[in-house]
Write a structure and sequence with these properties.
The longest helix is centred in the middle third of the chain and has 56 residues, at 392-447. This protein has helices spanning 4-8, 27-39, 44-61, 69-93, 106-133, 156-179, 181-184, 190-193, 196-212, 225-257, 262-309, 328-334, 338-341, 392-447, 451-481, 491-501, 503-508, 527-547, 585-588, 606-616; strands at 96-97, 100-101, 143-145, 151-153, 313-317, 323-326, 350-353, 356-360, 366-378, 381-390, 487-490, 512-517, 522-525, 554-561, 571-578, 622-625, 631-638, 654-655. With 656 residues, the protein is an alpha+beta fold. One of its GO terms (molecular function) is phosphorelay sensor kinase activity.
């Protein structure tokens, strides 16, 4: 494009007006403005150099076209600088895309026209200033010889007006043409140019221009607008720019060929300026309308695609609640075509009752759904957007989950029943065995007529039966709720009761049970359950002593306030130790697992049940080696009253 700048100056000799050497429309200024817009201010010196090259080229090729080339070089060199400011402002205000500056809107065309008029006005004022300052300058009233040999008198104001009109007309036609070259290439395909409509538009432009010449009359100008409006209305701004370039070339050819008077040249300049403004504005309006229409169509296509690809059913409703559009999912759910659903009331499609919603399929089958309605304001009213989600799979999954949960609960109850049965079998073994033992002894004594001893044994048997009932009640509640029914229990009473219950077993094993209980300890426990824990631990110790070879058979129950830093203490530490061989290595890792035992007749549930009871009281049952050399089990229990306020309870130090 830079090479076209100096060549454009060769068109100047075509002018026939009061000022020889000036073209009717300044093509060169339009090229320069486009170059500065595209390149920016840093390459302005290249445009200046092109202006100098243009002057030199014109002086060599057409020396007669400008008798005073040195004087006329001043505005020619100033021209790139004058139009640089409008070019830079346009470059900042016009938006760009991948093909360059975007002029296809009314705002861009108005900015181009306004800034072009301002730049042309500056150039015209420069001419008037030169005519005022330099009396010897050609525009100061000298008689000049035009390119056709006629003598003409120069009027500075007339020349300035012609110069302004020529600059504005030239720039508004050539600058958009130069800036839109990438876009115009899409309109210049041979197949497109040979279409009947394009050929008709070209013929119309040629005929309308032929009407004007050779005699330039104002009333003959009107037909020129017809093909221009035709092109702009059909092709938008790109077509209007091409049509204006053709009109400007045709008018230039008519000026060069026909005998045009100076005042007629001014008429043609004004005509070209009117054509340029009309064509650019109309083309911009059409292009803007087409762009908005294309964007709307593109947005509508995208929206339709999104609606079709939505994971939920979508129903578009009009202001009256009738179906305007549905996506494919709604059609698939109902088994109907979208056309059959359009225009129908929403109530025919979606039913609601008692908080439940369902779609009615074509076969009458209800399909459970959930919906959400949003109202959207649009021009002339509101639109409803209803989203529908199929929840039949969710309902089936919920039903299946309910069945699975019921089965799991049933299995859990069965497992719990099995555990409870096993626990009852384990815990009731001792009191039932005691009952059998006491009643057998009672029968033997009665046979020997010793009634007092029989009564004592019958009392013990009754106590064991009552204890068996209490065990059943407490275990059943514990396995049902997982909670304990705590009550204040003096620690001394608890340990003393355990010692009494196990006195016969300890004596039969040839062992000794020692107890050490801190003063004033009152526990918050379920007495029956904790008694069972202590009984299980002491029995395990008796079994360990029976398996061992030691003659020192001792068991120790040690209960004292925990040293946890709390004041007063909140828990009591309990330890059950023995002098047996300790815990076997093969069972140490799974000691508290159910059914873990080293005895042939044992069930292996005692420690498992005991651990559950201790944890329900907020403690933890641990196993290790005690101070007596054998196994030791320790845990903690909550206290009710501080040690200094609790009533003192004394426990026996030994039980046979």
């Amino acid at each position: 494009m830079l090479a076209l700048y100096p060549l454009a100056g060769l068109l100047d000799p075509l002018l026939v007006s009061a000022v020889p050497g000036w073209a009717p429309w300044n093509v060169r200024a339009g090229i320069g403005l486009a170059l500065v817009m595209a390149w920016g201010p840093r390459r302005l010196p290249l445009v200046m150099a092109a202006a100098v090259a243009g002057l030199a080229l014109r002086a060599v090729l057409v020396p007669a076209s400008h008798p005073l080339a040195a004087s006329m070089a001043i505005p020619s060199l100033a021209e790139p600088l004058v139009f640089a400011l409008p070019a830079l402002l346009l470059a900042r205000r016009l938006r760009q895309d991948g093909e360059g500056f975007v002029l296809e809107d009314v705002d861009g065309v108005m900015r181009l026209a306004g800034l072009t008029m301002a730049g042309a006005l500056g150039q015209s004022l420069l001419l008037l200033a030169l005519a005022w300052v330099l009396p010897a300058w050609p525009l100061a009233g000298w008689t000049l010889t035009g390119w056709d040999g006629r003598a003409m008198t120069a009027d500075p104001l007339t020349v300035a007006l012609q110069h302004w009109v020529g600059d504005v007309a030239g720039v508004t036609v050539v600058a958009p043409l130069a800036l839109m070259v990438p876009r115009l290439t899409r309109h210049l395909h041979p197949a497109r140019l040979l279409r009947a409509q394009i050929l008709g538009q070209v013929a119309g432009i040629c005929l309308s221009v032929a009407v004007i010449f050779p005699r330039v009359v104002g009333s003959r100008f009107y037909p020129v607008f017809i093909p221009l409006v035709w092109v702009a209305a059909g092709s938008g701004l790109p077509g209007a720019v091409l049509a204006l370039a053709g009109l400007e070339a045709a008018l230039s050819l008519g000026i060069a060929v026909c005998d045009i008077q100076p005042y007629q040249a001014l008429k043609l300049q004004i005509l070209m300026l009117s054509l340029a403004m009309t064509g650019l504005l109309l083309g911009a309006v059409i292009s803007e309308r087409e762009r908005v229409r294309a964007a709307a169509a593109k947005g509508e296509a995208r929206l339709k695609t999104l609606i079709e690809l939505a994971p939920d059913g979508i129903v578009i409703l009009d202001a009256d609640g009738r179906v305007e559009e549905v996506n494919r999912l709604v059609a698939d759910l109902t088994g109907r075509t979208p056309d059959s659903l359009r225009g129908r009331p929403l109530a025919d499609l979606l039913h609601r009752e008692s908080g439940e919603e369902w779609l009615v399929a074509a076969d009458g089958r209800p399909l459970p759904v959930e919906s959400s309605l949003a109202m959207v304001e649009e021009t002339g009213g509101v639109m409803g957007v209803l989203t529908i989600r199929d929840i039949s799979a969710r309902k089936r999954a919920a039903a299946a989950l309910g069945q699975h949960r019921a089965a799991a609960e049933q299995a859990s109850r069965s497992h719990l029943t099995e555990e409870l049965a096993a626990a009852l079998a384990h815990e009731l073994n001792q009191p039932l065995s005691a009952i059998v033992s006491y009643t057998g002894a009672c029968r033997r004594i009665l046979e020997s007529e010793s009634q007092s001893k029989a009564l004592e044994l019958m009392g013990k048997a009754a106590a064991q039966a009552e204890r068996a009932g209490a065990i059943i009640r407490h275990l059943r509640e514990f396995y049902r709720t997982g909670q304990v029914d705590s009550a204040p229990v003096p620690a001394g009473d608890l340990v003393a009761g355990v010692a009494r219950l196990l006195a016969d077993e300890v004596a039969n094993a040839g062992a000794r049970l020692d107890v050490v209980v801190g003063d004033g300890l009152i526990l918050s426990i379920d007495r029956v359950q904790v008694e069972q824990v202590l009984i299980n631990l002491v029995r395990n110790a008796l079994d360990a002593l029976a398996d061992g070879a030691t003659t020192d058979r001792r068991i120790l129950i040690d209960m004292r306030a925990a040293e946890d830093g709390a004041a007063p203490p909140t828990r009591a530490d309990i330890r059950v130790a023995d002098t047996g061989p300790g815990i076997a290595e093969e069972v140490a890792g799974r000691l508290f697992a159910p059914f873990t035992t080293t005895r042939p007749t044992g069930m292996g549930l005692g420690l498992s049940i005991s651990r559950g009871i201790v944890e329900a009281h907020g403690g933890r049952l641990r196993a290790g080696t005690g101070t007596l050399g054998g196994a030791a089990f320790s845990f903690s229990l909550p206290l009710v009253l501080p040690a200094e306020e609790a009533p003192t309870q004394e426990a026996p130090n030994a039980a046979a």
